[in-house]
Amino acid sequence: MITLLLGVGVVFGVAYVFRHVFVKGRRCTSKATLHGKTVIVTGSNTGIGMTTAIDVAKRGARVILACRSKQRGEAALKEVMRESGSNKVVFMQLDLGSLKSVRSFAETFLKSEPRLDILINNAGVFLQGRTEDGLEMMFGVNHIGHFLLTNLLLDRLKECEPSRVVNVSSMGHQYGTIDFDCLNTQKALGMDASFKEVFKVYCDSKLCNVLFNHELAKRLKGTKVTCYSLHPGAIKSDLGRNSLTLQMAVPLVYFFTKNTVDGAQTTLHCALQEGLEPLSGRYFSNCALKEPSAKAKDDAAAKKLWELSERLCGLA
Fold first, then answer.
1. What is the pLDDT of residues 31-47, one digit of tens each?
2. Does residue 283 have an active-site annotation?
3. How many whole angstroms separate alpha carbon 312 and alpha carbon 99?
């Protein structure tokens, strides 16, 4: 019995060291203050989105919490204000699964807010189904919603340059593919799809994030608006709240996942770190530049995805 207990203790000890040395990761070292700046954070009612919002609010920014749920958004507003000590925090409803809602959000924001200095496209879902507009849910929310939002706000970002767009992706993009025939028809998975099939669609949407960022940087050349995509790390968050499989896996992977403070660091690095401008369009992980997969740097695929996205959200 004593041997067994010692063995368990050793295992947990090793796991603890592993977690704090290898999982926790680097920290954003920027001391930048954001007084007079405005930041939008999508999906900021929970997880790394809320943590990111708290951090930039502490730095003096006016923070827009862009969230789908009014109830959760208003609760998050109170928490972000309490944790940051700032009263310059606003909740604005945004459902990225509705192109109408995205347009309404952008219209309201542009009428009421004179500045936009940093747009953080953080929100994401791991969920089957279709959006209000008939798009596959993860493609629609994780990519198309943010694609439209960014394009509608680009002029304001240019007016306030130097400014930044931060696109939260995932290392899962490495396992994604872009099937343009499938995207054109918007065939959705059946509700009996396996976890592997659903995860593959999620990875596809994360590849879209990196390709979008790649093409956006090209289109922003000549301006002082820069953009960055990133992998935040494996995080204990609400991303899998609609997936029973992911919820069951949480206790098993606890020691190999970051908390939301650690998970927000690369987002903050891309949003705040001085001197990143020459790296616009690049991909980051663990607060450092990292090469994404070769398919995430495919110029032709990035351009084709942009053009398809324009058609799907009515910009073309």
1. 999 999 999 999 999 99
2. no
3. 10
Distance separating alpha carbons of residues 96 and 99, to the nearest angstrom: 7
Q: Cα–Cα distance between 294 and 271 in angstroms, integer?
A: 24
Q: What are phi and psi of 139, to 5 degrees?
A: -65, -45
Q: How distant, in Å, are the alpha carbons of 131, 230, 241, 268 from that of 54?
A: 29, 19, 22, 11
User: Which of these is catalytic: 16, 175, 202, 228?
Assistant: 202
Distance CA 273, CA 198 (A): 35
Assign 22 a pLDDT band (cuts: 50, 70, 90): very low
DSSP string, 42-94: ETTTSHHHHHHHHHHHHTT-EEEEEES-HHHHHHHHHHHHHHH--S-EEEEE-
Cα three-residue angle 314-315-316, rounded to 5 degrees: 95
List the 163-168 sheet strands across, edge first. 89-93, 62-67, 38-42, 118-121, 163-168, 225-231, 283-285, 288-289
């969920």: which residue's tokens?
A: 127
Q: How many CB atoms lie within 10 A of CB 151?
A: 18
Are the C-beta atoms of residues 60 and 42 closer than 8 Å to each other? no
**What's the pTM?**
0.88
Alpha helix locations (H) across 96-194?
99-112, 137-138, 146-159, 180-185
Does the pLDDT value for residue 297 go beyond 80? Answer: yes
Q: Which residues of 193-205 are buried (b: 16+ CB within 10 A; e: fewer)?
A: eeeeebbbbbbbb
Q: For residue 167, give the nearest of 113, 211, 222 by alpha carbon.
A: 211
Residue 302 in tokens: 């990035």
Dihedral angle over CA of 54, 56, 57, 59, nearest 10: 130
The per-residue pLDDT of the chain, averaged, comes to 88
3-state secondary structure of 227: strand
Check whether the bond before 278 is cis (ω within 30° of 0).
no
